[in-house]
Amino acid sequence: MGLDFDPWRSGRVGQVILFGRDEDVKAVLAESLGKFLEWIAGLLESGNFRLEAAEEPVLRRFRLKAPLSNDFHEGARSLLGAPGPFL
């Protein structure tokens, strides 16, 4: 996940995207960092999250309660109607 500073024509500079070596399809999560933080705040306010212990004793993994997924990226894609716009 990251900020896109070089989007394709239909994208916006600063949009929040899912990307990485394990991502087959890149997708837009939010049109800006502000909108992404609003979305995360909504998840927190509604209680639609769970924290799971990670291998490291001081870390916790942020997961969605619904849709139930062991991967935040997969849950976000499903919740937002994945795969979303191509970049």
Please give the structural blueprint.
Elements: E1 2-4, E2 15-18, E3 27-30, H1 33-46, E4 50-53, E5 60-63, H2 72-79
Antiparallel strand pairs: 1-2, 2-3, 4-5
Task: Outline the structure in words.
This protein is an alpha+beta fold. It has one domain (2-79). It has two helices and five strands. The chain has helices spanning 33-46, 72-79; strands at 2-4, 15-18, 27-30, 50-53, 60-63. The strands form two sheets. It has a three-stranded antiparallel beta sheet with strand order 1-2-3. Strand 2 and strand 3 form a beta hairpin. The longest helix has 14 residues, at 33-46. It is globular. The chain starts with a strand and ends in an 8-residue tail after the last helix. The model has no long low-confidence stretch (mean pLDDT 81).
Gyration radius from CA atoms, angstroms: 14 Å
Q: For the largest beta sheet, what order do the strands appear in spatially? A: 1-2-3
Helical region count? 2
Strand content: 15-25%
